[in-house]
Amino acid sequence: MFISQGVTDNGALMRCDNDLEHVCKIMDEIKHSSYHINSKQALSLFYNASIEQLIECSSYLRNKFKPSTLTYSRKVFVNLVNLCRDTCSYCTYKKEPGDSAISMLDPDKVLAIVEIAKRLRCTEALIVTGERPEIRYREVRNWLRKKGFSTLSEYIGEICEMIIKKTGLLPHTNAGSLSKQELFTLRESNASMGLMLESSSIRLSGRGMPHEKAPSKHPKVRIKSLTSCGELKIPTTTGILIGIGETAEEIVESLFLIKSLHESYGHIQEVIMQNFLPKDGTSMSDYPAPSKEYFMRAVAVARILMPNMNIQVPPNLNESIEDYINVGINDWGGISPVTIDYVNPERPWPPIEYVNQVTSRKGLSLKARLPVYPEFLKDGQSYISQCVRPSIEALANEEGLVKESYLS
Fold first, then answer.
1. CA 160 to CA 178: how far, in whole Å?
2. What is the structure's pLDDT at 25?
């Protein structure tokens, strides 16, 4: 099951050639001139460059385009509804009716969670749900109907509006592949939104593959939603999942797709590079995680392909997190002092102070950001709705990061 082409099942590299002279030439062009690397060159770096070469190059680019600072978002994870129409082969987030861990949060429960988060100086309310659970589950349809809603996206809109008005925290919704109309509506009450591409590989949606029973994970569906986010000028976080059976070629293809979307619309605010970890109780529980070097190569290539992009590696999913600073990341993503990571509950967030110490040891400063990046606050605020602007103005300093006075 889940056979990779070009890499072994655990992500160990299988070199396709030894053209080190060609690799050195590409590296030199990247570091000393303007460059437009193509997919063949990117793949050559992935396979043939030494990890030391990749570290040198990706660190150089991070220091050039994203110098001095690593950021994180101080967040609360609102696990709104964890039923889902999809079934991914590696996921434990999805629950079924009757499960003791099912979550269908009423507004008063959401507000209680977010008010605690505000007292602990969070700025982001991360709203996470399963993919269109009302399509599959009568229980969700009935629950929504009693509240006066026909779809989960309608309910999310009300929840986000409540959060802004009553707490001033900034919603960032991750609810799967949404229609353009749904995105248009949610744009009004969200500072930014998130949708992981995961992979541009149609192969991974085939029979016996990780996304076979997850129609919303088909690349065409994800790309359509990501394109709509661009057309609507929504600051959007996306990313790819490494180690679920993709090839190195498919990693590069996925990164080029994200790069192309951003070049077309300018709306991708962050690319998450996330490593697969096997979970008990899933059909991929015995599937090996990608090797650390394989994952680090993918992160380095992401930086090389998108030198101006904000690139994140989740700190709770990796050991020795300082190594990912070496390969060019400039963000740690959301870290919560309030709630667990409900998608990866077995992986606790590292304390923010620990992340600060690791970052400082690398000669960089750790700063808190909003769920929308500073770049999107400078363009006449065309990316920010009237509903969201007052909260941003209350929380942001002149750099577009979080005011020190709010955190103290």
1. 16
2. 75
